[in-house]
């Protein structure tokens, strides 16, 4: 069966927008993209879905999530980074069995509701594997690993290898696994190198939090400061005398397949090093703003040719999984940082959230744009009753009007995984299952 989706605006990304366009899907693949008459003429017997006053575009790619923190919104708001981290660590033991899994399932569905078809998750518990699989998301779930300077590097790798084998059985063909050495302050250089070697031997992507905050830079360089204090009961932080990015670069740990999350505190020279290495960067603007970390130099990274995607991080530091709000935040913070309105346009930010994210994750041959031969990952934004109902620029309309409430559907691999209205009860059930865990973390349960 062939399905044809039509909309007033079709935004392929990587190709010119189409007014009154259409996309044909067959067996999970895009088989045609063009004007409504030509696509319907080529597939006269197709099942037709007319989306009307909407923008049809590639499903968005949320290149950095923590699905299991879906219920953490607002915890520690206003605290300095180190204190916020300590608060986060202190709450987690209050959770009961099943809480993490319920939160991850909620996070996966909220991503679909926001037009996201692919996530790249950093998972402490591994619950994101089953959550993404059951929701029908395309995902790379990076299992987090930790180990200070006193840890046995090969022991850390062996433990991670065993966890990967355990969770592999929960993954669908749409879900891959990866490795996440959490950060240069929570993973000592020798441990990080051992994890990277393992990842390369198994062709796994590596996701790590780097150059996120000033507190991180102090912890990595001097082994002191608020992060060192917050983690003192868990691990010793080694003083390296180096910037986080320089430490990784000097150890040969920047290369294709490495995903650097945040990269807020990097200078022009370090941007050039990232560009030469082939590593990618994920920009998390709301998280960086809410935690007072700063605004990443997106204009400079783009100018240097660094592959860039956008991530929501988690509600623990970014309010919610509303990816449309994340795109607007990326646009606004880039313009504020550079002091000019062309620092990041709607077209550019939408490219970062689709094809850009796909490049960072190494899946741009599969998804990220509406092109014949790619997997059918699509979403649509309803423009009815907005100023953009008659759109002048499809990207501007989608970015400025987009919201979870205006996401009409999200299709992953040719299957509708979320549809507005039809999934209302499913969303309510996920919220009901997940909120008791939040109550426990707040400490108000009976």
Based on the model shown, name its key terms.
single chain; 446 residues; alpha/beta; Urease, subunit C, domain 1; TIM Barrel; 2 domains; eight-stranded mixed beta sheet; 16 strands; 22% strand; globular
Question: Can you walk me through this structure?
Answer:
- With 446 residues, this protein is of the alpha/beta class.
- It folds into two domains: 110 residues, Urease, subunit C, domain 1 (Roll); 302 residues, TIM Barrel, CATH 3.20.20.140.
- The chain contains 17 helices and 16 strands.
- The strands form three sheets. Strands 1, 2, 3, 4, 5, 14, 15 and 16 form an eight-stranded mixed beta sheet that branches.
- It is globular, with a radius of gyration of 21 Å.
- The CATH architecture classification of the largest domain is Alpha-Beta Barrel
Q: Report the portion of residues in β strands.
A: 15-25%
Question: Percent of residues in helical segments?
Answer: 25-40%
Oligomer: single chain
User: What is the CATH first-level class name of the largest domain?
Assistant: Alpha Beta
Relevant CATH superfamily of the largest domain: Metal-dependent hydrolases
Shape verdict: globular
Q: Rg from C-alpha positions?
A: 21 Å
Largest sheet: 8 strands, mixed
